Amino acid sequence: MSEPRQLEVLRAIVEDYVHSREPVGSKALVDRHHLGVSSATIRNDMAALEEEGLIAAPHTSAGRIPTDKGYRMFVDRISAVKPLSAAERRAIHTFLDQADDLDDVLDRTVRLLSQLTNQVAVVQYPQLTSAAVRHIELVLLAPRQVLVVMIVTTGKVEQRMVTLPEETTEDALQHVRAAFLASTSGALLSRLPELLTTAVTSAPPQDRAVAAILGNALEQLAGIGREDRMVLAGTANLARSTGDFPLSIGPVLEALEEQVVMMRLLTEMEQDARGVSVRIGHENRYGGLTEASVVATGYGPDELAKIGVLGPTRMDYPTTIAAVRAVARYLSRILAG
Amino acid sequence: MSEPRQLEVLRAIVEDYVHSREPVGSKALVDRHHLGVSSATIRNDMAALEEEGLIAAPHTSAGRIPTDKGYRMFVDRISAVKPLSAAERRAIHTFLDQADDLDDVLDRTVRLLSQLTNQVAVVQYPQLTSAAVRHIELVLLAPRQVLVVMIVTTGKVEQRMVTLPEETTEDALQHVRAAFLASTSGALLSRLPELLTTAVTSAPPQDRAVAAILGNALEQLAGIGREDRMVLAGTANLARSTGDFPLSIGPVLEALEEQVVMMRLLTEMEQDARGVSVRIGHENRYGGLTEASVVATGYGPDELAKIGVLGPTRMDYPTTIAAVRAVARYLSRILAG
DNA sequence: ACTTAGCACTTGGGCATGTTGAGTGCTAAA
DNA sequence: TTTAGCACTCAACATGCCCAAGTGCTAAGT
Question: Of B206, B224, B242, which residue is a domain's last?
Answer without folding.
Answer: B224
